[in-house]
């Protein structure tokens, strides 16, 4: 993808979007040059779609000057000097002609609208909603080595035996309830599910230990 200044903009002006859609690079635009009827048609269409509520503008500027009638051979925009911003929630701009309005659109909104009209491949790359690079995935914790896991479980088993007067109930959830009360007495909290799961692992290790002749 060839990068351009337009890829960096989160808000794009209607006239720049019209230039890109009519295959005219706004970066080389000379202010007093006329960009052609296709450019005007794109601006007109985008304004009409915005006025109809099909394309949501980010910013609306309206002319404070008296605008002469637009013809195919005359572009009134070239003599308009004064613009003022109004809220897009106002209705007044919806009755104006495209030469009396300057609109800006959020890139994502403009891209959404274009995708309702064209295939993605037909939309100029500079007007597509460029996804932000994703942060690299956090490295996954390596599983605990079986010897270290055995050490942890043996240590927990010894502490549980001490807390439960030398006997861990064979029913994991019964043992979990008893251990929960002990933890709460020290201001600590754990759900019964992870406690019961740990008790099951302890009982399994104990069984392996009892059956292992070595």
Q: Could you tell me the radius of gyration in angstroms?
A: 35 Å
What is the terminal-to-terminal distance? 64 Å
Give the strand order, joined by hyphens, for the main sheet. 1-4-2-3
Order of helices and strands: EHHEEEHHHH
Largest sheet: 4 strands, antiparallel
**Which whole number gives the mean pLDDT?**
81
Number of helices: 6
Kindly name the structural category: alpha+beta
What share of residues is helical?
25-40%
**Overall strand count:** 4
What does this structure look like?
With 214 residues, the protein is α+β, with helices and mostly antiparallel strands. It has six helices and four strands. It has helices spanning 14-21, 37-51, 107-115, 146-163, 172-185, 192-211, and strands spanning 11-13, 59-63, 83-86, 101-106. A four-stranded antiparallel sheet has the order 1-4-2-3. The mean pLDDT is 81.
Write the layout of secondary structure elements.
Elements lengths: L10 E3 H8 L15 H15 L7 E5 L19 E4 L14 E6 H9 L30 H18 L8 H14 L6 H20 L3
Antiparallel strand pairs: 1-4, 2-3, 2-4
Helix pairs in contact: 1-2, 4-6, 5-6
């Amino acid at each position: 993808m060839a990068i351009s200044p337009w890829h960096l903009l989160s808000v794009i002006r209607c006239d720049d979007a019209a230039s890109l859609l009519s295959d005219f690079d706004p970066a080389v635009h000379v202010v007093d040059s006329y960009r052609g009827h296709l450019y005007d048609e794109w601006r007109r269409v985008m304004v009409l779609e915005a006025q109809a509520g099909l394309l949501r503008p980010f910013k609306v500027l309206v002319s404070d000057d008296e605008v002469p009638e637009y013809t195919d051979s005359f572009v009134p925009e070239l003599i308009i000097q004064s613009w003022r911003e109004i809220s897009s929630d106002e209705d007044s701009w919806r009755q104006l002609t495209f030469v009396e309005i300057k609109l800006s659109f959020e890139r994502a909104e403009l891209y959404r609208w274009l995708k309702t009209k064209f295939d993605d491949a037909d939309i100029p790359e500079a007007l597509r909603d460029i996804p932000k690079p994703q942060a690299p995935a956090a490295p996954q914790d390596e599983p605990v080595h079986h010897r270290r896991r055995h050490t942890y479980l043996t240590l927990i088993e010894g502490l549980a035996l001490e807390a439960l007067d030398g006997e861990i109930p064979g029913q994991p959830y019964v043992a979990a309830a008893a251990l929960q009360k002990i933890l709460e007495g020290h201001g600590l909290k754990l759900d019964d599910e992870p406690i019961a799961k740990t008790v099951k692992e302890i009982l399994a290790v104990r069984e392996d230990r009892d059956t292992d002749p070595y």
